[in-house]
Amino acid sequence: MMKLLVTGASGFLGWNICNHVQKEFEIFGTVFSNPLEISGVKIISLDLTNFNDLKRIFKEVGPDGVIHTAAASRPEFCQTSPEESNKINVEATVNLAGLCADRDIPFVFTSTDLVFDGKNAPYKENDPVNPINIYGEQKAFAEEKVLNTYSRSSVCRMPMMFGLSSPAYETFFQQTVNALKERRELTLFTDEFRTPISGFAATQGLILALKKSKGILHLGGMERISRYDFGKLIAGLIDCTTDKIIASKQKDVQLSVPRAADLTLDSTRAFSLGFNPLTLKEELQSLLT
Q1: With CB atoms counted within 10 Å of each terminal CB, which end of the chain scores lower, N or C?
Q2: Bridge partners of 59?
């Protein structure tokens, strides 16, 4: 059975990968600030920014492939702590690519739709990047460095994701469901658009990239939707009224970190490789029923 090293096993995406592909891979999941146990997964406590420890784990595990999901993924943190976040978002990422190159094994790096400025959607893989916050800048720089370090790498740009949260991370989806059920007001933007996918679909896309892709790959869903309409869709599926969902516009709000308005991804290439996410309604129904 192929040995798969998954970084960031306590995060939303890493946790979903570890839980969804156990029958296909022998999984080794790395954790750092949020230790946890996942049945059937060998958990490794590891500081990815320590290159010597990283080399040691590669030698001990002997992975046949790596999916790198670990990141300092909160834009607010990256904006206020650029040097610290750069260590994991760029330096550790490039080191992982180099170690995979040394072993000649597939390397999948999860990037983000935030490498774009949101002004010229939908975005294809070859469209120029133009991030508007430090997190996006770090991911864009890491993309370039990874592909220059190891040509066999696959850089997967991920959209907004939803699904069951890991014990250490609550998603926008979970926050929305909880607010609706508790009848709390929920302010959502009508002018911020994404192409969301579930954690399960994201896992399928990343495994596809591990097996079939190199270079940049967009793993967005088939539907473009605003955060406001996404909230209304969830409300309808859990039989909650929408009167507590307050429509707001991003352009009218003073944000602590710049946010792009429309990050719709064109994922035609991934679809042609076999990426086939369900519709948003189908994905949400499977999670909420």
Answers
A1: C
A2: none
Q: pLDDT tens, 65-93?
A: 999 999 999 999 999 999 999 999 999 99
**Is there a common fold for 2-161+197-218 and 171-195+224-264+279-288?**
no
Query: If pLDDT is split at 50, 70 and 90, which confidence band does 172 have?
Result: confident
Residues comprising the chain, all counted? 289
How far is 265 from 206, CA to CA, in rounded Å?
16
Residue in this structure with the two tokens 């069951």, named with its chain if needed: 164
Query: CB of 221 within 8 A of CB of 233?
Result: no
pLDDT in tens, 34-44: 888 999 999 99
* HSE value, Cβ hemisphere, 13 Å, CA-based, for 262: 11
CA-to-CA distance for 3 and 65, rounded, in angstroms? Answer: 7
Query: From CA 18, how far away is CA 187, in angstroms rounded?
Result: 33
- Residue 45 C-alpha from the chain's centroid: 21
Domain extents in the chain: 2-161+197-218, 171-195+224-264+279-288
Only one residue has tokens 């002997």, namely 62
Q: Cα separations (Å) of 226 from 91, 206, 215?
A: 34, 24, 29
Question: Which architecture does CATH list for 2-161+197-218?
Answer: 3-Layer(aba) Sandwich (3.40)
Q: Is the distance from CB of 288 to CB of 240 less than 8 angstroms? A: no
Q: How large is the average pLDDT for residues 99-112?
A: 98
Q: How far apart are CA 19 and CA 151, in angstroms?
A: 29
Spatial distance between the Cα atoms of 50 and 65, rounded to a whole number of angstroms: 20
pLDDT at 289 over 80: no
Place of tokens 């933007």: 189
Are β-strands 161-162 and 197-198 bridged in parallel, bridged antiparallel, or unpaired? Answer: parallel
